[in-house]
User: Fold these one by one.
Assistant:
Number 1:
Amino acid sequence: QQQVKQSPQSLIVQKGGIPIINCAYENTAFDYFPWYQQFPGKGPALLIAIRPDVSEKKEGRFTISFNKSAKQFSLHIMDSQPGDSATYFCAASMGSSYKLIFGSGTRLLVRP
Amino acid sequence: DAMVIQNPRYQVTQFGKPVTLSCSQTLNHNVMYWYQQKSSQAPKLLFHYYDKDFNNEADTPDNFQSRRPNTSFCFLDIRSPGLGDAAMYLCATRKQGGMYQETQYFGPGTRLLVL
């Protein structure tokens, strides 16, 4: 019940495409859902995050869609660029400790 | 620039030889985390400090210990590294309270190789 399931494992799109990465969770006590971006040899960096009281959040080219009833959330990257090639992790946490449970990651490659 | 620093970036140790990884931060954050990330896997939380209060995850092996002598520094001690402990070790910090208290800031990681 503490798991966050992420798919796909890897994704290849052409420049300008809209990759979509999906995550699902079981524990309805989760109340914070961030996405982290990780480049090779670097630590993860927060990309965008959402709380379950909203269904969508947009920051620049990155959008989170959140479906509370389905217990699913997804990341959309508009007008993807080769520089977006990285591994993306969804995560979830509950309460004030903000201990993150990470999904298994999606390796994204954006071809020029 | 305020940041999370991890040293060394690469560490090679021998099977069973104790090793210490270090993390320092200039962000003055009161919460610090240690994660283990194995190749092509998600980061997995080992333990965290809320100020000086140590919080161990239930499934963290006893082989892993941690020290936080002050706000800025945190150490990960692996008492007897096994081959299965080869991984990237990530340190993260967070400031409890305030507008962005949810955000964890990660260091670049220390890649540990066990021979």
Note: The radius of gyration of chain A is 13 Å.
Number 2:
Amino acid sequence: QVQLVQSGAEVKRPGASVKVSCKASGYTFTSFHMHWVRQAPGQGLEWMAIINPDGDSITYARRFQGRLTLTRDTSTSTLYMELNSLRSDDTAIYYCARATLSYSPFDFWGQGTLVTVSS
Amino acid sequence: DIQLTQSPSFMSASVGDRVVITCRASQDISRFLAWYQQRPGKAPKLLIYAASTLQSGVPSRFSGSGSGTEFTLTIRSLQPEDFATYYCQQVKSYLPITFGQGTRLESK
């Protein structure tokens, strides 16, 4: 069965970086688009970025450009999200999610990773 | 950016009720709209895509309709497990993909 398993919670200082992983199983990792979405405490969902199945096209939401990097390791079917220059308003749950096409909905989601930014 | 506005933002209802949630888009998105349910402490779950197609495994009491700029999610005969927050999402443009602000459905 399809599973997206994310790394554990992180606590970071302002200005630091965080790298969250998302390990896929139960399907062909290189056949699907992957997204990152975040949710601040008590708030709604905010889309962050998409990577295509070939891994050669990544699009970042405008507000994260220059601060967000997506990478992946196809040998372990793992996707990574690294966010730099963390601020307190980056405190959120970060989700990875799968989509068939760039204009498809997200049919499977990771369990979420809480990133807390605090001095 | 395509803005999605859900109404209401909050509602209370009882088991057995029929519930309707609306999502309005700031521009024509054809039928590139999905609905998600999110229970507290859980990841969102896809309910409906392409405006009206029920995701596999989702109960038939959920239905979606609409096209263009106005969409609805209907829950027929509300069940206890349906009390959650619901989000609409447009996938017509991933520059950026956007979500509605959410509709929190609570037990009356």
Note: Chain A touches chain B at residues 35, 44-47, 50, 59, 61-62, 95, 99, 102-107, 109-112 (CB under 8 Å).
Number 3:
Amino acid sequence: EVKLVESGGGLVKPGESLRLSCAASGFTFSNAWMNWVRQVPGKGLEWVGRIKSKSDGGTADYAAPVKGRFIISRDDSRNTLYLQMYSLKNEDTGFYYCMTARFAPWGQGTLVTVSS
Amino acid sequence: DIQMTQSPSSLSASVGDRVTITCRASQTTTNNLNWYQQEAGKAPKLLIYGTSTLQRGVPSRFSGSGSGTDFTLTISSLQPEDFATYYCQQTYSIPYTFGQGTKVDIK
């Protein structure tokens, strides 16, 4: 059974940094392309970015609002996906979800709150 | 970027009703179109991928159709557990954009 568990969220001030983690199990993580999606509470869904498997180049793509501030990485030895967030803004507040290229299943998400 | 527009933004329906939600893309997504259901306070759940393929475990009253730029999610007979918000998403090109959502509530 595919399982994804996000962690690392919290309350930070504008301009600060935060690193989210996503622990994966139930599938061959090293072969998987992985995504991050976020949702402002009560609002819609926004794709944040994607990282390819290392065998497919391991490169990442990002949505325009986060490009240059967020970095997606992976540690295949730990079956873990990361989202390093720098220069956080109020509008980065929301639940962050990781998922495979199939966009299923979704974990419970981790809440990031950016507020002074 | 491909813009995804859902209609309606909300609708009220009764148990047993047939419900149709449409999703229009600003350019072709071929058949790379997903539908999600999000119940209040929960994470979204994939219902349909590839325009019309039901995710395992999704009831057969849900169906998807369309091609190119116009897609439809249909619930043939609305059940109490179907009152939720539904989103479409294109996975044809980066960035993978979502529609704004359609909230289905009880009439």
Note: Chain B has a mean pLDDT of 97.
